[in-house]
Design a protein that fits this description.
Distance between the termini: 69 Å
CATH superfamily of the largest domain: Transcription elongation factor, GreA/GreB, N-terminal domain
Radius of gyration: 24 Å
Largest sheet: 5 strands, mixed
Strand order of the largest sheet: 5-4-3-7-6
Structural class: alpha/beta
CATH topology of the largest domain: Helix Hairpins
CATH class of the largest domain: Mainly Alpha
Helix content: 40-55%
CATH architecture of the largest domain: Orthogonal Bundle
Number of domains: 2
C-alpha cells in the first residue's frame, strides 16, 4: 500500500526532490567537443587565465589570514575567502579546458565559394541589408554583427552560396534571408 502511494505521489509533482541551480545549468553546457574560435578570442582566454592565476597568491593569503581567527564553522570572513578561492580555481579549470579544446577558425573565402566559420556574410531581409560574421558560440555578439554558427540563422546560412535563400521560423512567421555576398 505504501509503495503504491509513493509511486502515485512521485508521478505527480507532489514530492519533488530539490535541485540546485548548478544542476539546472548543466543541461545548457556544451558537449565537450572542440570550441571554434579566432586567434584573438584564444589570446583573450590566455590573458584571462594569466590574470586569474596572478590573483591566486592574494586569495591564498586571505584564506590563511582569516583562518587564523579561529573557529572555521562560524568564521564568516574565512568562509567568504574560501568561496573566492574555490571560485578562482573553478575559473582557472574552465579557462584551461576552453584553451585545450580551442579549434582555430582559419577562413579564406577564395578557397571556398560557400559560407563557413569565419565568413562575413551580407544578407538581405525585408529590403534591409545586414552583415554578419559567423563564429563559434564563444564569440557571438549579435549587436556587433557576430553570430554563432549554432544559432538558427547561423545554422541556416552555413554552406550556402551567393544567391541562396533561407527561411528562419519565428513566432511571428518565417523570415526570408537572401545571401548577397560572402567574404
Amino acid at each position: 500500500m505504501f509503495l503504491e502511494w509513493v509511486n502515485k505521489t512521485c508521478d505527480d509533482d507532489y514530492m519533488r526532490v530539490p535541485r540546485r541551480k548548478s544542476e539546472e545549468f548543466k543541461k545548457y553546457q556544451d558537449d565537450g567537443g572542440p570550441l571554434p574560435m579566432t586567434q584573438s578570442a584564444l589570446d583573450q582566454l590566455h590573458r584571462k587565465l594569466a590574470h586569474t592565476e596572478r590573483e591566486l597568491p592574494a586569495l591564498i593569503d586571505e584564506v590563511q589570514r582569516t583562518g587564523a581567527f579561529g573557529d572555521f564553522s562560524e568564521n564568516a570572513e574565512y568562509q567568504a575567502a574560501k568561496y573566492l578561492l574555490r571560485r578562482a580555481h573553478g575559473r582557472i579549470a574552465a579557462l584551461k579546458d576552453k584553451i585545450k579544446r580551442a579549434a582555430l577558425i582559419t577562413h579564406d573565402p577564395r578557397h571556398t565559394g560557400w559560407i563557413e566559420l569565419g565568413s562575413t556574410v551580407t544578407v538581405e531581409s525585408n529590403g534591409a541589408h545586414h552583415t554578419f560574421t559567423i563564429l563559434g558560440s564563444q564569440e557571438s555578439d549579435p549587436l556587433r554583427g557576430k553570430i554563432s554558427a549554432s544559432s538558427p540563422l547561423g545554422k541556416a546560412l552555413m554552406h550556402r552560396t551567393v544567391g541562396d535563400k533561407v527561411i528562419i521560423e519565428t513566432k511571428k512567421g518565417g523570415v526570408e534571408y537572401k545571401v548577397i555576398s560572402i567574404l
